[in-house]
Design a protein that fits this description.
The complex is a heterodimer of chains A (139) and B (557).
Chain A lengths: L2 H6 L3 E6 L3 H10 L8 E6 L7 H9 L4 E6 L10 H18 L6 E5 L5 H24 L1
Parallel strand pairs in A: 1-2, 1-3, 3-4
Helix pairs in contact in A: 2-5
Chain B lengths: L2 E6 L11 H9 L4 E7 L5 H14 L3 E6 L6 H10 L7 E5 L1 H5 L5 H19 L8 E4 L3 E5 L3 H12 L3 E5 L22 H13 L4 E4 L3 E8 L2 E8 L2 E7 L1 E4 L4 E2 L16 E3 H7 L10 E8 L15 H15 L4 E6 L9 H11 L2 E12 L4 E7 L4 E7 L1 E6 L1 E2 L4 H8 L26 E3 L9 H19 L3 E4 L4 E3 L9 H5 L5 E4 L4 E4 L9 H5 L5 E3 L4 H12 L3
Parallel strand pairs in B: 1-2, 1-3, 3-4, 6-7, 6-12, 7-8, 12-22, 14-20, 15-16, 15-20, 16-17
Antiparallel strand pairs in B: 5-23, 9-10, 10-11, 13-21, 17-18, 18-19, 24-27, 25-26
Classes of the chains: A alpha/beta (139), B alpha/beta (557).
């Protein structure tokens, strides 16, 4: 993909828990809600399955942003998997901050029934990344 | 490796925003891809035969189906592979409908996205390995939660089909709301006699156990062998059931939420339910003036209930009819938005009511003000665009249905989802209206949305049949997505042991490595993400699979 073209349309990789956010994304699709094509999701059994190495790999290989999304705290199918995710992502964010790319990573909670919330969260993330990319281009 | 890619048009659903022909041509150029085809409906019988033929003729060892979301038709496509003597875990589903075709409008961008999604699936499928499915016995017993008409009809059907039924009711008496209805429309039969007939039928059956005044305190386990803990008046009781039907009903809307209606502050303002129960004791003058308000607690954005409650229009019509029958010279005015007399015969009933002399005024009622002489209704006539103010002797509020009061508790206990109105959510509103996202748990009656008595009974029966279909097989497949350890790589740091919350990882002091107790592993994959030396992996979601899936998204084409 050409560099200038890429700046216009960010590529975002999302890791979605199969019990909640992936279901919400399915529902968003069934309800014909729209979100940008740049957003692609990967199904994981639990948000705690997401190895920080996956996130780093996606960023290194050229993704403009990565989001991890799981069940609301307390609602985890595996009881407390999402608490581990929260701590893991917090630590990773600190590391990303050292490279001034904290904005490229986002964690949010979307339950299986919250298709609207899923759309809101991913499109806001997408637009924020797009804005940052444009700013960088101008600078 | 011989991979077969099958791309579904899904009629027009995928085809009209994704160039499926271009995709199937594109993937033909890949060295590992033996078959790349697009087809109108891959899930149809000819579509399934096409996959079977390709597996047999070409000797495929990986199958990629790019179609709807994996949770839809998953077991069916797995069966196709089983019938062709291919391990079902060599199947890879790529969602290009819910995650691509339906969420974007631009054909070019969508085709590009679908290409990426299939590519990721193709890369990832290279790491799929045949896995051994576990077959688990299913207990042929069912839990029915709620003893209203839908719960009762579900319990009767399940017991008739030979399942052991445990019916749990929170209240001391079975029957739910229908027990309190005087005449169930259209036959006008007493609600009490309807439920008592059903209860009698149920009580006479040997394989039914009824728990009244009982609540559910815990529900855990997996399909086929759910463990339930009940809090009965006799103390705690534990049961093992194969599945459950949830029929916890609804709560009548409480009009006191809307202060402008002054409900509960004046005895001349009553609900349709109160009218029904107290119609004999109402003190009305010879020529009463009565107002009936439709859509109280339905189709109201201010209180966040935009849905139609479906039954309240007929209830309002019944009130009008009863008044006209009992008081010939009464003045009855109905204030409505639309009259939606859904059920069979509803429209005729509406016309009859009009002929009897009930006036229908399309209006938005602003407020109800009780005064010593009468109750004043102020509002706007939406056909004439004029405001009005009229005095009545009685105001009947046709209340709608709200979500059941225990909805959040039950949803949490059974780990099922609620929709935006706090009713239970169906797995699919059209294709799977009785199922929930959790296998073996079905919903019946008004807890999934407003329904009348007839619909509730049918919903209960349908859920019973669906549950029977699952339980009667006697066995179920369990996904073998559990962790395993490569002892050669394990350094014995025991990080995973501390992370695992189901205590499935045990440390071997002698060999200084860990191992996974398969029965306890829940398959979350936390240990896999925690292990610093990549020694522990979650079957079905191993590291290279996800790594290559990311590559499919990000690499330059």
């Amino acid at each position: 993909m050409a560099e200038d073209e890429k700046d216009k349309n960010p590529e975002i990789v999302g890791f979605c828990c199969s019990y909640c956010t992936f279901k919400a994304s399915e529902m968003a699709g069934s309800l014909r809600m729209k979100y940008p094509e740049g957003i692609k999701v990967i199904e994981v059994p639990c948000s705690s399955r997401v190895d920080p190495a996956f996130i780093i790999k996606a960023i290194v290989e050229g993704a403009d942003g990565v989001f991890v999304s799981g069940c609301h705290p307390g609602d985890c199918h595996f009881i407390k998997g999402n608490f581990y995710t929260r701590r893991k992502i917090a630590a990773l964010k600190e590391m990303f901050d050292a490279f001034s790319m904290k904005d490229k990573l986002r964690l949010f909670w979307v339950s299986a029934s919250e298709a609207r919330r899923f759309i809101d969260k991913v499109t806001t993330f997408y637009n924020d990344i797009k804005e940052k990319n444009n700013e960088r281009e101008k600078a | 490796m011989k991979t077969g890619i099958f791309i579904c048009h899904c009629g027009h659903n995928i085809k009209h925003t994704v160039d499926v022909k271009k995709l199937s041509e594109y993937f033909k150029t890949f060295p590992n891809v033996t078959v790349s085809q697009d087809y109108v409906f891959v899930c149809s019988e000819p579509g399934q035969d096409m996959i079977k033929d390709a597996i047999e003729k070409e000797g495929l060892d990986r199958v990629i189906i790019a179609s709807c979301t994996p949770s839809l038709h998953g077991p069916m496509f797995k069966d196709v592979l089983r019938k062709s003597n291919l391990n079902p875990f060599l199947l890879r589903r790529v969602s290009i409908r819910e995650h691509c075709a339906w969420v974007g409008n631009d054909v070019e961008a969508n085709t590009e996205k679908a290409k990426r999604l299939i590519l990721a699936g193709l890369y990832s499928s290279a790491h799929h390995v045949p896995l051994e499915e576990k077959i688990v016995d299913v207990k042929k017993s069912a839990l029915v939660v709620g003893g209203g008409v839908s719960g009762l009809s579900a319990a009767i059907f399940l017991s008739k089909m030979g399942m052991q039924v445990h019916l749990v009711e929170k209240k001391s008496e079975l029957g739910g709301h229908v027990r309190t209805l005087k005449g169930v429309w259209p036959a006008g039969r007493d609600g009490k006699s309807i439920v008592e007939d059903m209860v009698r039928e149920l009580e006479g059956r040997e394989n039914v156990e009824i728990f009244t005044s009982t609540t559910i305190t815990n529900f855990e386990g997996f399909f086929g062998n759910y463990e339930v803990t009940l809090n009965t008046p006799q103390g705690e009781k534990k049961l093992t059931v194969g599945g459950a039907v949830l029929a916890i009903g609804f709560s009548p809307f409480d009009p006191s939420i809307k202060p402008e209606l002054h409900y509960g502050k004046d005895e001349r303002i009553i609900t349709t339910l109160e009218f029904e129960n107290n119609s004999n004791t109402l003190q009305l003058p010879e020529k009463p003036r009565v107002a009936i308000l439709h859509c109280v607690g339905s189709r109201d954005e201010q209180i966040g209930k935009v849905y139609c409650s479906r039954v309240c229009c007929v209830n309002a019509l019944r009130v009008g009819n009863a008044l006209k029958d009992n008081y010939k010279d009464s003045y009855v005015e109905s204030f409505y938005m639309d009259v939606r007399a859904h059920p069979k015969g509803g429209e005729e009933f509406f016309e009859d009511t009009q002929e009897k002399g009930v006036l229908f005024t399309r209006a938005n009622v602003g407020e109800i003000v009780p005064t010593p002489t009468g109750v004043i209704i102020r509002g706007e006539d939406t056909l004439f665009g004029e405001t009005f103010e009229r005095e009545f002797d009685l105001v009947v509020l046709s209340i709608g249905m709200s979500s059941p009061e225990d909805c959040k508790l039950i949803a949490n206990t059974f780990k099922i989802a609620l929709d935006k109105d706090n009713f239970f959510m169906e797995a699919h509103i059209k294709l799977r209206p009785f199922d929930t996202a959790v296998k073996g748990i079905f919903i019946a009656g008004t807890c999934s949305g407003p329904k009348d008595v007839e619909e509730s009974i049918n919903h209960g029966r349908a859920s019973a049949v669906k549950l029977f279909g699952l339980l009667n097989l006697g066995y179920t497949y369990v996904d073998p997505f559990i962790s395993y350890v490569d002892p050669k790589r394990c350094s014995g740091c025991r990080m995973c042991e501390h992370a695992c919350f189901s205590n499935a990882i045990k440390y071997d002091e002698e060999k200084r490595v860990v191992h996974v107790e398969e029965a306890a592993c829940m398959g979350c994959g936390l240990c896999n993400a925690t292990c610093p030396s990549s020694a522990i992996s979650l079957r079905g979601y191993i590291d290279p699979m996800i790594d290559d899936e990311i590559s499919g998204f990000t690499e330059a084409i």
